[in-house]
Amino acid sequence: MKKLVLLLALISVVQITAQSKSELLKHFEAYYAQMKNQGDPQGVINAMTHLNILQPNQQRLDTLAYIYVSEGRNLEALNTIGIDPSPEDSDINTEVKALALKALNQPKSALVFYEELFNRDPNPYLAYEIADLMTQTQNLPGAKAKVAYGLANVKEDMKRAFYESQRPYEVSLKAALTYMKALIVFNMNQTDNLDQAIALLDEALTIDPTFNMAKLSKDALEARKSTPAKE
Predict the structure, then answer these.
(1) Residue 101: how many CB atoms within 10 A of its CB?
(2) Is 98:89 a contact under the CB 8 Å cutoff?
(3) DSSP letter string over 152-215?
(4) C-alpha distances in angstroms, 161 versus 41, 62, 76, 171?
(5) How far is CA 43 from CA 50, 52, 142, in A?
(6) How far apart are CA 159 and CA 88, in angstroms?
(7) Tell me, what's the pLDDT at 104?
(8) CB 96 within 8 A of CB 79
(9) Average pLDDT of span 46-68
(10) What is the number of alpha carbons within 13 Å of residue 87 lying toward its C-beta?
(11) What is the mean predicted confidence (pLDDT) over 66-86?
(12) 17, exposed or middle or buried, with CB in 10 Å at 0-12, 13-18, 19+?
């Protein structure tokens, strides 16, 4: 009799727990929808965190990490999904790792994930990002090859954002790739390739005269050219 009472009590606890979990899931799903409608990223993060505790889900984790990285919270993004590469990673997961590591000034680590994205879906946008990271890590031949791919496949309506000025702006991706080509050429030989780099920056400015970064770089190279080298 005691065993039967204990068993019934245990079944009741399990049923109550299941019911409570179901109610909590409904609550946080409704909370998530409301926070999303209100455009409240922190509310969305809170809701998704609770939902994942109640019902672990890799897709939800990937989305949560993407929200973190979109808000500039790169460490939280990586803490959510980790930094180890896996062939099973979703595109969002891989993109988050690439963006977060680049933002945290880890170009070598970021390159692993950008190249994986490129292998899955090669395009001029990724070619630019990879060329930029390869230039930072002094893989200039690799960077040059990616720029060549980008210029061969870029479309006129493609844009790329820059943030060096107080107000972010967009320029033609073709101009951005030409600018990157100038930087690569210059870094390959900062003396002999100076004129060629300036000519490429002129080309970038012809494509997009609003390209502030290209103008700043051209001014810096022209100043270098006009300053006699110290013996």
Answers:
(1) 23
(2) no
(3) HH--TT-EEEE-SSSS-EEEEHHHHHHHHHHHHHHHH-TTTTHHHHHHHHHHHHHH-TT-HHHH
(4) 23, 24, 24, 6
(5) 11, 14, 42
(6) 30
(7) 97
(8) no
(9) 91
(10) 0
(11) 95
(12) exposed
H or E stretch covering 89:
none
CA dist., res. 183 & res. 162, Å (int): 16
Residue 89 vs residues 36, 80, 84, 86, 108: alpha-carbon distances, Å: 25, 13, 10, 5, 19
Instruction: Fill in the amino acid letter for 21.
Output: K
- pLDDT tens across 92-131, in order? 999 999 999 999 999 999 999 999 999 999 999 999 999 9
Sign (positive or negative) of CA dihedral 116, 119, 121, 124: positive
HEC string of 28-75 equals HHHHHHHHHHHCCHHHHHHHHHHHHHHCCCHHHHHHHHHHHHHCCCHH
**Residue position matching structure tokens 């290209």:** 214
| 101/185 Cα distance (integer angstroms) | 26
What is the signed CA dihedral for 22, 26, 28, 29, rounded to 10 degrees?
130
Helices (H) and strands (E) in the chain, counts: 11, 2
Structural domains present in the chain: 122-231 (1.25.40.10)
Amino acid at 173: L
Question: Contact at 8 Å (CB) between 66 and 40?
Answer: no
